[in-house]
């Protein structure tokens, strides 16, 4: 019998929570369309509105200001829609590719903002760019709450206050923050944020866009029927939304798991340095969420290591952005001047335990020893 696998790639997708799976199965057993007025339709509508209430409570927003989408990429493209002809988009250099693509903003209306070597947005550089672009229109800043590769927490509130000084607005990718740190739309100072269900233990295929004010929605991206209060056309993905809502409830009811993940991360990082004293950890000097470690060891190729771990039954990813299974250079690490082609990301899922950490470290010791022998030969 093959050995059970150890899954440590939660930032790509979290394991589905059992409660979310049960909610999805229950939704699939009912034929109702939430736009129908009969009993089955009303049942479906109640399910969606319950999930909407849960998402709103997670980020401290009004339920009326939550719109469900097919995921974070759709939400990002919708959020990145100019609300005035003269708006200029400012994007941190470490954003997710769905944000770096700039949505509906023209390339000549988009400006990149650098980060420091610890991966944190350079606030002085942001102010300089805002001042330089003062005559070019209203600023819009796209800044993630937590980086998906390094786990570094960004100064969204400070940046938002600065952007608001210039009469601008802020769009926050909160995908990797949800369930891993407290979230408040008001405290972040963001005008729009978006979430992804499968990054907090819900199913793939659902996300949400949340606005601070009633008039904060961009122009509709999808047009057609009157779903989602005429904000987003298309029949709602009832089962995915049901699972999303329950996953959010589980996150809110089990906030103590953040402390447990912090302890597991410390165990992991101590073990990494015991195996290899030269281990580098990206963003180590900055505030990070508890579940993410991106580390590198000189002289080893990331793609080789990911395959080696996989063959040993451990799922991790490289620190590089991936598309269709192809590993490429990481724009995040380039922006941080983190010259490490061997970067490996370990992201702990909500159900991780000490055995997962110890199994990873045992496998890493074996791989490290084997590769060192190969180089010596």
Give a verbal description of the structure.
There is one protein chain. The protein has helices at residues 18-28, 39-59, 72-79, 97-100, 123-132, 156-165, 185-188, 227-230, 238-253, 257-275, 302-311, 331-335, 354-376; strands at 6-7, 66-69, 88-92, 110-113, 139-142, 169-173, 192-196, 207-211, 280-281, 292-296, 314-315, 317-318, 322-323, 326-327, 344-347. It has 377 residues and is of the alpha/beta class. The protein folds into two domains: 6-15 and 256-376, Aspartate Aminotransferase, domain 1 (Alpha-Beta Complex), CATH 3.90.1150; 19-253, Type I PLP-dependent aspartate aminotransferase-like (Major domain) (Aspartate Aminotransferase, domain 2, 3-Layer(aba) Sandwich), CATH 3.40.640.10. The strands form four sheets. The protein has a seven-stranded mixed beta sheet with strand order 2-8-7-6-5-3-4, sandwiched between helices. Helix 5 (123-132) packs parallel to helix 6 and helix 10 runs parallel beside helix 13 (354-376). It is globular.
Q: How many domains?
A: 2
| Cα Rg | 21 Å
Low-pLDDT residue spans: 320-326
CATH overall fold name of the largest domain: Aspartate Aminotransferase, domain 2
- How large a portion of the residues is in β-strands, by DSSP E? 5-15%
Which structural class do you get from the secondary structure elements?
alpha/beta
Q: What is the β-strand count?
A: 15
Count of separate DSSP helical elements: 13
Please list the strands of the largest sheet in the order they lie side by side.
2-8-7-6-5-3-4
By CATH, the superfamily of the largest domain comes out as Type I PLP-dependent aspartate aminotransferase-like (Major domain)
Query: What about the largest sheet?
Result: 7 strands, mixed
Helix content estimate: 25-40%
GO molecular function: cysteine desulfurase activity; iron-sulfur cluster binding; metal ion binding
Cofactor: pyridoxal 5'-phosphate
Domain Aminotransferase class V: 6-360
Organism: Afifella marina DSM 2698
């Amino acid at each position: 019998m093959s050995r059970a696998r150890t899954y440590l790639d939660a930032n790509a997708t979290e394991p589905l929570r059992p409660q979310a799976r049960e909610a999805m199965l229950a939704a699939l057993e009912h034929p109702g369309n939430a736009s129908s007025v009969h009993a089955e339709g009303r049942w479906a509508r109640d399910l969606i509105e319950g999930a909407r209430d849960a998402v709103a409570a997670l980020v401290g927003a009004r339920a009326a200001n939550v719109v469900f989408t097919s995921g974070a990429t759709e939400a990002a493209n919708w959020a990145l829609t100019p609300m005035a002809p003269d708006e200029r988009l400012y994007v941190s250099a470490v954003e997710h590719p769905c944000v770096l693509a700039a949505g509906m903003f023209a390339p000549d209306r988009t400006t990149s903002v650098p980060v420091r070597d610890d991966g944190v947005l350079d606030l002085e550089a942001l102010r300089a760019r805002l001042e330089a672009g003062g005559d070019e229109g209203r600023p819009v800043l796209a800044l993630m709450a937590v980086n998906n590769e390094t786990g570094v927490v960004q100064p969204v509130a400070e940046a938002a206050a600065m952007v608001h000084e210039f009469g601008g607005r802020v769009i926050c990718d909160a995908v990797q923050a949800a369930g891993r740190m407290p979230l408040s739309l008001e405290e972040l100072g963001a005008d729009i944020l978006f979430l992804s269900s499968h990054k907090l233990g819900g199913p793939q295929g659902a996300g949400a866009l949340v606005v601070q004010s009633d008039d904060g929605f961009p122009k509709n991206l999808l047009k057609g029927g009157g779903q989602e209060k005429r904000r987003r056309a298309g029949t709602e993905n009832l089962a995915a939304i049901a699972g999303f809502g329950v996953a959010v409830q589980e996150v809110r009811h089990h906030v103590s798991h953040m402390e447990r993940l912090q302890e597991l991360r410390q165990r992991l990082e101590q073990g990494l340095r015991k195996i290899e004293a030269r281990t580098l950890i990206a963003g180590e000097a900055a505030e990070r969420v508890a579940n993410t470690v991106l580390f590198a060891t000189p002289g080893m190729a990331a793609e080789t290591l990911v395959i080696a771990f996989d063959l040993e039954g451990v799922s991790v990813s490289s620190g590089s952005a991936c598309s269709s299974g192809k590993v490429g250079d990481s724009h995040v690490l380039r922006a941080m001047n983190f010259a490490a082609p061997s970067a490996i990301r370990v992201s702990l899922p909500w159900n991780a335990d000490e055995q997962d950490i110890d199994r990873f470290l045992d496998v890493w010791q074996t791989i490290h020893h084997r590769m060192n022998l190969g180089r010596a030969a």
